[in-house]
Amino acid sequence: MLPAIQAEQQILDLIHPLDAHLDRETVALGHALGRILATTITSKLDFPHWDNSAMDGYAVRYEDVQHCSRDRPVALTIMEEIPAGTQPHHLIQPGQAARILTGSVMPAGADTVVMQEDTQRDGDRVTIFTAPKPQAFVRHQGAFYQAGAPLLGGGIRIQATEMAILAAAQCAEVAVYRKPRVAILSTGSELVDLEQPLQPGQIVDSNRYALMVLVAQAGAEPIEIGSIPDDPAALKSAIAHAIATADLVISSGGVSVGDYDYIDEILADLGATIHIRSVAVRPGKPLTVATFSASPSSPHRPTLYFGLPGNPVSALVTFWRFVQPAIRKLAGRLSPWAPIVVNARTQQELRSDGKRETYVWGQVQVTNGGYEFHVAGGSQSSGNLINLAGTNALAVIAIGQTQIPAGATVSVLLVNGD
């Protein structure tokens, strides 16, 4: 069994990311949310586009007001008012000022803004009571960004802030990586669809629904292969189809050592190179990771195969821990790809047999003192899907560690993110 950190690194080393030239497409900005930029974005615009005011007040010449005070105020003539979105019409001369609003263009001749709280207006005259600092409240053209410089780099995931930046830069279309295609199949003769009445011994294929959502959240395109019975011929046909269809394949079930666990044997028959068969983690010990040489669906890189355990908690935990980072790298995202780890204070005692790295699922909450981890109620069994509801974190008990007392600090993997 490989330690988790070694398995993670080995998996990431197997990933050949999508090609920025061969695997990109152009999309309208309105459809770019969650996509990965394939190229560096530049803009022809400076930010700010022109010198402008950061405050409601009066645009003045600093030399006119540098010595003023409550005892020695300075009165200036207001030449014009400059609303946002309009062009100034006057050159500010000695003894003059312009009424200006936040975001408005600075008039020629003015170099400083006095905020209105330090002034008093009377008709076309304004009295300044406080000497400002030179160039106070002036945002200079190009201070935030200069035209032609890199604005956003390739590999960045487009979220709300990036959408705003791209819109401000007038990028109506952007080049993004295509979404990786991820085929998902479940194995087991006991699995049925959710609409089907359950017979004794049957269960609903819940893993498929969870994995479809997790793959989509990771920024990939899920391809539903379906539930396959424990029949070697049917499994071989389904896996061969998945390999020919997708960049990455995920199956759940059939990777342990039971009489009907055929996945590793079938992968070998199809010409796979099996790199990992088990990992020293709980839940999720039986994890198969294999690669296939270039296929029609993935002509420039090997197709990666993940055989996850069938127990629902084990399937989700191994996805969060090992598959999600692989999809992030495959999709062209910048590193780090691994789950975010934070230190939290556990509110309950945590226990393990110390033989494998153990993940205890529950919820992390942010408090004034940092993070708090709360263990999910009920049984911490790999078959207990029910108490996974609301899970956003996995507390980590290291190999050789058997107990972490309540109130102690524990490393926590944040899950269910993007």
Explained architecture:
This protein has 418 residues and is of the alpha/beta class. 18% of the residues lie in helices and 32% in strands. The protein has 7 helices and 28 strands. Helix 1 packs across helix 7 and helix 4 packs parallel to helix 7. The model has no long low-confidence stretch (mean pLDDT 94).
Key terms for this structure?
alpha/beta; 418 residues
Quick structural gist:
This protein has 418 residues and is of the alpha/beta class.
- Unreliable stretches: none
Oligomer: single chain
Estimated helix fraction: 10-25%
β-strand number: 28
Question: Strand sequence of the main sheet, in spatial order?
Answer: 7-4-6-5-9-8
In DSSP terms (H or I, runs of 4 or more residues), the helix count works out at: 7
Could you tell me the radius of gyration in angstroms? 30 Å
Note the main sheet. 6 strands, mixed
Strand content: 25-35%
Shape: elongated
Strand and helix layout:
Elements: H1 4-14, E1 24-28, E2 41-42, E3 52-53, E4 57-60, H2 62-65, E5 74-82, E6 96-100, E7 112-115, E8 119-122, E9 125-128, E10 138-139, E11 150-152, H3 160-168, E12 173-177, E13 181-187, E14 191-192, E15 203-204, H4 206-217, E16 221-228, H5 232-245, E17 248-252, H6 263-269, E18 273-278, E19 281-282, E20 286-292, E21 303-308, H7 312-330, E22 341-346, E23 350-351, E24 357-367, E25 370-375, E26 393-397, E27 403-404, E28 409-414
Parallel strand pairs: 5-6, 13-16, 13-17, 14-15, 17-21, 19-24, 22-25
Antiparallel strand pairs: 1-12, 2-11, 3-10, 4-6, 4-7, 5-9, 8-9, 18-20, 20-21, 22-28, 23-27, 24-25, 24-26, 26-28
Helix pairs in contact: 1-7, 4-7
